[in-house]
Amino acid sequence: MNILEIILKLILAVALGGLIGIEREASQKPAGFRTNILVCVGSAMMMSLAVGLVQGSAATPDSLIRMAAGVITGIGFLGAGTIIQARGMVIGLTTATTIWVVAGLGLVIGAGYYIPSLILTALIIATLVAFRKIEALYLRKNVYHYHLKYKDSPDLLSRLRRLSFHYGIKLERLNIKKEDLHLILNFSITGSEEKEHEFADALMNLGELEEFRVD
């Protein structure tokens, strides 16, 4: 295997991992654009190294299997770090699974299967984008519109962001207005009734709350 072929594999890994990363970043997930690129590139480089060693007769063909197994196992620890368990809910399984699949994508690229890697990328993106819309339409749910008024504090917004991440909730159409010594927040969330109740309870203790309304 020559250097040019390895470079082309790495460029393809950056491109395909980046496409998946863009979707994750747009969805405000912890493993976003750069993480998915690095996972894909790293896996592609490791497999390219194993292929090069086999072709150079410095290793046996089963080295490819051991390399793939090692990468997948190592990525499992990284994926586990993205899973959060809070108040009986497990958050981050899709992100962890995406990292695992992207590592597999890198291995496919590193092994030289370019057409299958393109098909796999298309399937991953379709699952993350199209199937999420189907899930939102048929499997979950309600949309809740919040109107909150807090006494202004320097870290109120950062605490709100941490809270939404903690519960795995995306704040949609967030609008912030400062009025005298108060902050007025308007936003929407989509989710189950149970999760909305838990999130609402946490908002009660977020700061000095003066007005709370949910439509």
Summarize the structure in short:
By secondary structure, the chain is α+β, with helices and mostly antiparallel strands. 62% of the residues lie in helices and 19% in strands.
Structure, explained:
This protein is α+β, with helices and mostly antiparallel strands and 215 residues long. The chain folds into two domains: 3-138, no CATH class; 142-214, ACT domain (Alpha-Beta Plaits, 2-Layer Sandwich). The protein is built from seven helices and six strands; from the N terminus they run H-H-H-E-E-H-H-E-H-E-E-H-E. The chain has helices at residues 3-26, 33-55, 62-80, 93-110, 114-139, 156-167, 193-204; strands at 84-86, 89-91, 142-151, 172-179, 182-191, 209-214. A four-stranded antiparallel beta sheet has the order 4-5-3-6. The longest helix is centred in the middle third of the chain and has 26 residues, at 114-139. It is elongated. It starts with a helix and ends with a strand. Mean pLDDT is 81; it is low at 85-89.
